[in-house]
Structure formats: structure tokens, C-alpha cells
Amino acid sequence: MKEAEKRREVSLFVTIRDDFSLEKIADCGQCFRARRFGDGTYLFISGDRVLRIRKVRPEDKYEVDCSGEEWDSFWKEYFDLDRDYSRIREICSSQFSEECDGTGTFLMKAAESGEGLRILRQNSWEVLITFILSQRKNMPAIAASVEKLSRLYGHRLDVRNDRKDDTDMSRVLVISGKEDKETGLYSFPTPEELKCASEQDLRDAGLGYRAPYVRDAIDKIMSGELDLEAMQNLDDDALFDRLVTVKGVGKKVADCISLFGFGRTGRSPVDVWIDRAISRCGGEDPFPKFGEYAGIMQQYVFYYMTHTDNS
DNA sequence: GACCAGGTGGCCT
DNA sequence: AGGCCACATGGT
Questions:
Q1: What pLDDT, in 10s, does the model give residues A56-112?
Q2: Which nucleotide is nearest to A144 (CA to C1')?
Q3: CA–C1' span, A14 to C6, in Å?
């Protein structure tokens, strides 16, 4: 038995039959703290929870390092496992043929390339802040920024069986540069942990012109002016209207927060990549036509645009 | 050292 | 309502 196996005290095997690609999920730009170890184990962080998950021999089996109770009550929902993505892809592909000329085949190829993606049920506060940070940054820069904020204002997570061999770990989202020798995991800071950070503190953390935006978000949450829990009950348009009251949250970021932080799969954010995709579809945004699945199709296309050579 | 990045707010017609 | 443009920082 290998050393790495011995250290694993808790080991649970779960079955996932639906579309599920750890590599794509970790590297699709909706969560920014996923990592991959050299042995193909992936790590996800949500709140104070950390999950290591690895595909094992039978095709639909995965090894996870949490209890069965935690898997059932938390991670299954996090990965949106109650939704049948393969069926959604079928439903969507039946609409492709109705598209004129190149658009249908373009969407078809995108959906194929994104097979295995899922819309994660992330914490809405974390999504609010990380997508404010995301504007005018590339994915490695976003990941680095989120990581830095977590190290500065989050708290250290005491991880089960913490590995001693963190150095041979490679991250899917590369945390650039030199600080990377440091081991240990940090939680994403809560509103309480950030409430004392001044705008200047946030600038010092490298947030640049987004510092006052994040500061405004903290203020609105702490004052109760923005109640993320209560906003779960709003319909999509009302939720959107509340989100854009935060400085630095415009249409695109509000749609991202709705989709990734509130599970509103009818929302399809339009960023620079999707804008290029729309141009390729003759200038008309094809996503709203997919109704409740618009956001899922958008994710497939986003993945396609960012992971294939397009000229 | 340009040029760009999962945009937005504030101005200007 | 719609068209510019500054904005901070880091990757490529």
C-alpha cells in the first residue's frame, strides 16, 4: 500500500453516473480555488469544508475523504448532483437543428466540449465577492487574488490528514509566483472577517479599483441592507435588481452571481468570450432560447471558447 | 513593454 | 438610451 493511501483515514466511495468531469469543473471559471494534486486528486473548498475527490477504477466511482453524512448533506448539493445534465444536453441539442446555418453546429460542438461540467451550488457571499474581483482579470489573476484575500482575511483550515507533500501538488488554476511554497489552506473570508478591512487595506491586498466595490458589498451585508439568505426567495428579476445595487455589480456580474451563487440556470452572463461566441452566431444571443437551461448552455460555450483554439 | 483580462460607473451627447 | 473612457493589477 502506498504512503498516500495509508494517510487517508477516512475513505468513502461514491457513485456518480451523470456527466461529471472533475478537470472541467475545477477549471471552468466559476470557482477559483479548486486544485489538482499530482495523483489526480482534486480539492474543493466551500466555507470551512474541504473535499478531496478522486476518480477510481470503475468508470462512475469516486473516492472522497468526507463522511457519508457530509457527502449526502452537503457535497451532493454542491456539485448539483440531483440535476440530470446528460438529459439537459439532449434537450438542448434537439434545439440546435432549429438554428440557422453555422449556429447549430457551433452550439453542438460547444456542448460536446463541455460535457462533464456542472453548475456548482457555491456560497452566494463568496460568489458575490469573487465575481466583483473578476472584472477585467484573466482566470489565473482572479485565482491569485481570491487566494490572497483568503490568506489575509480568512482563517486557517485544519484539514483531515493534511498532506506533507503539498509541494508536489500542481494547481489547476495556477496561483502565480513565488508565495507558492507556503502550505496550508485558508477559508474564504466571511463578511465578519472582512468588516474591519478599510478600503486602503483592500487596496493593499491588491484589489485595485475594486476595493471600494468590495467595501460596499461588506457594508451592505453587515448593515442588513442586502440579505443574501432572504434573496433566495426572490424571482430572477427581483434578485437581479437587488444584486446591482452593490457598487461594481453590473449586468454581467449580477448574472454570474445569480447563476453560480443562486443556482439560477436561466441566467446566461455575457462577457468578452460569450460576446465573441454571439458574433459567431450571427450577432444574436442564442442563450435565452434555452430558457431554464440558458446558463448551462452558456457554461458549455464559455468552456469551449476558453479551451479551444478559436481564430 | 505593449496588449489584454469572465466590466462597471460616470460622464457625455 | 447609447457611446466613450478611466480604472489597478497581473498574465502572456
A1: 988 899 999 999 999 999 999 999 999 999 999 999 999 988 887 789 999 999 999
A2: C10
A3: 51
